[in-house]
Amino acid sequence: MKAARKDSDREPEGNTGKAAGSGTGADTGPDTGPDTGPDAGPDAGGNGGTASDAASSWRAFPARQQPDWPDAAALGAVARGLAGAPPLVAAAECDLLRRRMAAVARGEAILLQGGDCAETFAGTGTDSIRGKLRTLLQMAVVLTHATALPVVKVGRMAGQYAKPRSSPVEERDGVTLPSYRGDAVNGLEFTAGARRPDAERLRAMYDASARSLNLVRALTTGGFADLRQVHAWNQGFVAASGAGERYEQLADEIGRSLAFMRACGVDTREVATAEFFVGHEGLLLDYEAALTRTEPGTGRAYATSGHLLWIGERTRDLDGAHVEYFSRIANPIAVKLGPTTTPDTVLALVDRLDPDREPGRLTFVVRAGADRVRDVLPTLVEKVNAEGAQVCWVSDPMHGNTTTAPSGHKTRRFDTVLDEVRGFVEVHRELGTHPGGIHVELTGDDVTECVGGGNAVLEEDLPERYETACDPRLNHTQSLDLAFLLAEQYRDRSVARG
After folding, report:
1. Which of 309, 349, 353, 455 is positioned for an S-S bond with 282, CB 3.0–4.6 A?
2. How many Å apart are CA 25 and CA 66, to the nearest integer?
3. What tens digit of pLDDT does each residue of 206-215 get?
4. CA–CA separation, 187 and 197 (whole Å)
5. What's the pLDDT at 17?
6. Is residue 123 packed enough to be buried (19+ CB in 10 Å), middle (13-18) or exposed (0-12)?
7. Residue 248, helix vs strand vs coil
8. Looking at residues 303-331, what average pLDDT do you find?
9. Which residues contact 59 (CB under 8 A, 6 or more apart)?
10. Separation in Å, CA 111 to CA 47, 62, 63
11. Least reliable range by pLDDT among 18-22, 145-149, 187-191
12. Alpha-carbon gap, residue 132 to 307, rounded angstroms
């Protein structure tokens, strides 16, 4: 184990998951690797203290972006209730994802993570969840075929109910109220009552997450993920897309591969299930602490609110409560890195969060912006590699590319999102390293929140279906556009390396 590094150039606060269906059958690609060997998971040592340590040690550190709960007694009662509730995910599922992420770190798999910017309690209906899951499954099939690598699928769901904010208050027409911090904390309506933080919402967050997980598990094991059906969906997308001709060749190749499998006697019903995990930003530490559990036999602590949790750009202070909490749980974890991130900061995060340099333990999600990623990323990757850390590098092309349209709507331009992904892949191609995947905000609905794409959404279209509770998301068509175009990037990279 390396001694913790003194962070001589630390940044300010920052710029403005049982896997559902895990082990239930074949996926859209081959298995991501054996479950034994040097990457066999956290049992070999490394991070993860006892639940009591993980649930309490962070309280001695400054905790950013926590709500100003007005009723401490109510918060304590809810936390005690959650502490006695069943875990939402199992430790064995988290260990499985850690092994899958180790394959990503080694260049043997791709991560696809996506879902709402901010989930809402009203959005836990069947149609909404089916739409997001369908979109991710379609994207995964395209990426699996293009890369000849398994795709590790993680939904940004069943827990993404809290958001950090750049200001603790919001002002409208001379009225100042607390900012909306997600349905886990307060309501979106601009009224004093709705914006008052309510600890009972943490219990509602748990219940909503449980409902979402139950549905995701039912869908991914009940035939919804049948590879033939997913391919038929993609064929329909290609036929209807304004850029469909560009995607026809890849879609036809997938169809021929399925026909070949059937001709060889492969029962495609064996690929009617999918391995699927869930994750969210581990922002509300009272909630995460209440759902921390110790695994009998190993004594290791797990955050059982989700399979993969991440620390946001605003809460990754090395001397902060979030880094302390994350350093003590055995889940696979991630950290968001913005454009001002320095190599010293990244190396110090590796020392704190992945001291034993275990593949699959730590993921860095880069949100530099399309205009900065080619300049920022190379040094970070080179410095981390020089330290012997085998982390996963993932692109978040959304958060660094937000603009405001003339109508006042926050939006993102599809071409800019694609350019950041393209820059991310180019950097890794030049360095000879693995572009581990993407982390995107998306929905399965035909919303009008991001501009552009094959069936172009125009700025004047934004008010038509602008439904996000926080930041703009790619709609179903834009998400599939991104998958097909990213597939081209990975294919070009494979040709260049060959």
Report:
1. 309
2. 40
3. 999 999 999 9
4. 8
5. 37
6. buried
7. helix
8. 98
9. 321
10. 22, 32, 29
11. 18-22
12. 18
What tokens appear for 142 in the block?
A: 């395209």
User: Which segments of 59-125 does DSSP mark as H helices, in order?
Assistant: 72-83, 91-105
Give the helix/strand (H/E) hosting 52.
Answer: helix 51-56
The residue with greater pLDDT, 71 or 39, is: 71
Beta carbons of 353 and 323 less than 8 angstroms apart: yes
Is the distance from CB of 286 to CB of 79 less than 8 angstroms?
Answer: yes
Backbone angles phi, psi at 326, to 5 degrees: -65, -30
- Alpha-carbon separation of residue 204 from 87, 209, 444 (angstroms): 15, 8, 24
Spatial distance between the Cα atoms of 303 and 25, rounded to a whole number of angstroms? 26
Among 343, 416, 327, smallest CA distance to 377 is for 343
In terms of DSSP bridges, do strands 277-281 and 151-156 run parallel, antiparallel, or are they unpaired? parallel
What amino acid occupies position 113? Q
Query: Would you say how long the chain is, in residues?
Result: 498
Report the predicted TM-score, pTM, of the whole model to 2 decimal places. 0.89
Which residues contact residue 253 at a Cβ distance below 8 angstroms, ignoring those fewer than 6 apart?
A: 145
List the beta strands (DSSP E) in 179-324. Answer: 277-281, 292-294, 301-303, 308-311
Distance CA 139, CA 487 (A): 9
Backbone angles phi, psi at 440, to 5 degrees: -130, 150
Q: For residue 464, what are the CA distances in angstroms to 189, 407, 457, 459?
A: 20, 12, 10, 10
DSSP string, 368-436: --TTTHHHHHHHHHHHHHHTT---EEEE--SGGGEEE-TTS-EEEBHHHHHHHHHHHHHHHHHHT----
- What CA–CA distances, in Å, run from 65 to 13, 270, 283, 312, 490? 10, 45, 7, 10, 37
Q: Which residue has the tokens 């978040």?
A: 396
Q: Which residue has the tokens 């060749």?
A: 249
Dihedral over alpha carbons 138, 250, 484, 159 (to 10 degrees): 20
Instruction: Residue 58: count other Cβ atoms within 10 Å of its Cβ.
Output: 22
Q: Which secondary structure element, helix H or strand E, spans residue 437, and what is its range?
A: strand 437-441
**Nearest alpha-carbon partner for 119 in 71, 68, 162, 90:** 162
Q: Among the residues of 63-199, which ranges form H helices?
A: 72-83, 91-105, 126-147, 192-195
